[in-house]
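Need a sequence for this fold. Nothing fancy.
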């Protein structure tokens, strides 16, 4: 749900009944508005003084309208218990979507059932490290200095009497660092004698497993305490940054000296660094973790293992999207002292124990780098969109400038949105003439090319200080539209393996396919309509396991009608099909040109939204999949010219990154295949990032088959 004048996410409340009765306010009457206030009080977002919005003041929603004519008494625990016309039963349009403006704080005592939070009241809200010397001139992140806590009257130091390594471990974890190291105590003692200090905290005693300093035993100085920290000094910590942040803190050399094996834990589909669905490596295959008994201790072990600080949140209920494939662990019970999640007691999962709707996730504490202060958006209709402006400097004063729009795309926009702290990229725009640039007109960055994993745009390749733009002027500068949610497409690899076969199809049945370039180039010189083409056919089932519907980039006005197939095509290329040699050389290719996107089937509790027929809306709903059977046109690779041998079948979804997703690393699927000139064997199909590095190396060294036996 959006906080400022937004609509309820995934639904629209309808106010038509109130308007029919001519009641004041248009959308909701004073009497019926009690329901809306009650609903938001359940969410913990408002008090009775919050404001309702008539439909004319909110942006129109999309998709289904779930609720209409709701009536609550005020005693219900959830909006699902209120009387209504039933879920999805509505005669409203999106012109009548209900909306609210919420206060910026939740009501006291509210807890989100999908977030496992610290149960204790936080006594210390904010902690920082202040360098003892050179304050303001040290590179970020700051890794060593005095521990300071924010109290009502300002920042105060912590008395170091009884200070232990466990205390330092907790403080470093809160500030985004996985571990701590010893400090030069003599230096800081000498320095403390020459400085004035304001102590606000003493007697800190942590066990080292706490996720927050306030969970440790500690005492505050009272206002009338005159002698504070007698014989002691300010507590000092020195933290060790993780690999992602070591280079910026000057500790790259030290980090690289440590041997790095393949990680056995990873995070997937997070909008920000240090967050995502937890996946673990078992028997050379990645799988998820069930959220049963998942808590901050287990989440903190994951975060520190990956080079971040302690956990800020332990997420349950697949809050970071659902995984696909195996669920490896359940009922993980960590003390918080373990160096790896695999060291924690756990239960091996069985098929009946858990489902992917219970996948566990984390949000980790991160070091403050100040990256978000070097980028901003201007001219957009909201804080999530606009023309991208970056700050550059040196030599000379810092100044703001624009980015050339040449070659700017989804991957670059992903990095910009991540640096801004605004989640995923919805669109990367090369023209932004409709957004006013104000007085910023200088282009200071061009040739930006990102892989999509960078933390900031200055980590991407670019032209440096000498900018070059093919199209000049502020009209052709880069822009973004960011979103907190995104789709995530995965191919059902087992279905490809089960349905693959060869067909020799007569040319007179392939005119429509030839029109859409679904045949090899040699087909142009064939003796039409005589002869045939040899096709490798298979079914593909594409699931959307993200947190937003997958929608084509182009609007309806630019869709193309194809008479052969009798429907509108919303994307030029949605999937690439390739036959590769073991060294990666492409010997045959195909593509699903202009895919028609629709919901073929959905999970039990999800309704279909998209259908191609009758110029319907196209897309794939979260929790649904689009199935293309092996027997439809272009669902093949033309292998007429392929010689017998050992090959790799590769399928890539959304290959040109036209539509933003939360994770592009799982868009490719690979299979081993053996072709003897008459028959084909397809096996070992898997999503590109589903195997360990060693298993992928074995896959690429596949020697082929002998006597129909896979070796």
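Here you go.
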């Amino acid at each position: 749900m959006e906080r400022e004048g937004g609509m309820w996410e995934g639904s629209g409340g309808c106010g038509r009944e109130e308007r029919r009765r001519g009641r004041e306010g248009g959308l909701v009457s004073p009497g019926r508005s009690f329901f809306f206030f009650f609903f938001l009080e359940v969410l913990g977002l408002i008090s009775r003084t919050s404001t309702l919005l008539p439909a004319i003041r909110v942006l129109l929603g999309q998709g289904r309208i779930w609720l209409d004519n709701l009536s609550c008494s005020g005693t219900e625990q959830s909006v699902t218990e209120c009387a209504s016309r039933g879920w999805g039963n509505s005669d409203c349009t999106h012109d009548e979507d209900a909306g609210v403006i919420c206060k910026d704080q939740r009501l006291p005592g509210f807890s989100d059932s999908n977030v496992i939070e610290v149960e204790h009241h936080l006594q210390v809200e904010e902690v920082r490290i202040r360098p003892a010397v050179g304050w303001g001139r040290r590179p970020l992140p700051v890794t060593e200095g005095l521990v300071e806590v924010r109290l009502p009257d300002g920042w105060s130091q912590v008395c170091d009497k009884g200070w232990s390594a466990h205390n330092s471990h907790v403080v470093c974890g809160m500030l985004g660092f996985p571990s701590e190291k010893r400090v030069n105590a003599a230096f800081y003692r000498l320095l403390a004698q020459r400085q004035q200090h304001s102590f606000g905290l003493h007697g800190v005693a942590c066990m080292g497993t706490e996720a927050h300093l306030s969970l440790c035993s500690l005492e505050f100085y009272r206002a009338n305490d005159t002698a504070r920290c007698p014989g002691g000094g300010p507590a000092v910590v020195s933290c060790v940054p993780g690999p992602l942040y070591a280079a910026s803190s000057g500790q790259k050399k030290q980090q690289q000296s440590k041997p790095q094996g393949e990680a056995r834990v990873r995070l997937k589909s997070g909008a920000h660094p240090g967050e995502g669905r937890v996946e673990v490596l078992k028997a050379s295959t990645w799988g998820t973790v069930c959220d049963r008994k998942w808590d901050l201790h287990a989440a903190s072990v994951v975060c520190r293992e990956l080079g971040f600080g302690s956990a800020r949140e332990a997420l349950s209920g697949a809050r970071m999207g659902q995984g696909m494939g195996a669920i490896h662990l359940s009922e993980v019970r960590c003390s918080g002292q373990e160096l790896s999640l695999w060291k924690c007691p756990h239960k091996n999962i069985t098929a009946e124990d858990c489902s992917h709707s219970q996948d566990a996730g984390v949000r980790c504490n991160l070091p403050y780098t100040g990256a978000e202060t070097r980028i901003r958006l201007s001219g957009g209709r909201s804080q999530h969109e606009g023309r991208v402006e970056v700050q550059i400097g040196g030599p000379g004063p810092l100044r703001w400038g624009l980015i050339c729009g040449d070659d700017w795309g989804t991957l670059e926009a992903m990095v910009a949105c991540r640096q801004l702290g605004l989640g995923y990229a919805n669109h990367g725009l090369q023209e932004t003439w409709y957004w006013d640039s104000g007085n910023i007109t200088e282009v200071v960055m061009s040739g930006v090319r990102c892989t999509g994993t960078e933390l900031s745009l200055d980590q991407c390749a670019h032209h440096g200080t000498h900018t070059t733009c093919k199209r000049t002027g502020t009209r052709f500068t880069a822009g973004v539209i960011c979103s907190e949610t995104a789709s995530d497409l995965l191919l059902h690899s087992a279905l490809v393996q089960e349905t693959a076969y060869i067909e020799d199809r007569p040319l007179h049945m392939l005119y429509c396919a030839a029109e859409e370039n679904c045949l090899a180039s040699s087909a142009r010189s064939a003796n039409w309509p005589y002869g045939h083409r040899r096709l490798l056919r298979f079914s593909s089932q594409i699931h959307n396991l993200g947190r937003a519907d997958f929608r084509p980039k182009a609007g309806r006005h630019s869709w193309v009608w194809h008479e052969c197939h009798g429907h509108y095509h919303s994307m030029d290329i949605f999937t690439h099909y390739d036959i590769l040699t073991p060294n990666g050389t492409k010997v045959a290719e195909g593509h699903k040109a202009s895919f028609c996107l629709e919901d073929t089937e959905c999970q039990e509790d999800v309704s279909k939204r998209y259908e191609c027929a009758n110029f319907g809306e196209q897309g794939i709903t979260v929790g649904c999949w689009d199935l293309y059977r092996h027997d439809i046109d272009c669902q093949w690779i033309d292998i007429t010219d392929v010689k017998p041998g050992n090959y790799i079948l590769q399928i890539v979804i959304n290959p040109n990154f036209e539509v933003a997703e939360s994770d592009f690393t799982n868009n490719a699927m690979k299979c081993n295949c053996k072709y003897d000139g008459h028959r084909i064997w397809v096996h070992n199909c898997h999503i590109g990032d589903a195997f360990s590095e060693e298993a992928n190396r074995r896959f690429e060294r596949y020697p082929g088959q002998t006597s129909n036996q896979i070796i």
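For context: Residues 33-43 form the longest helix (11 residues).
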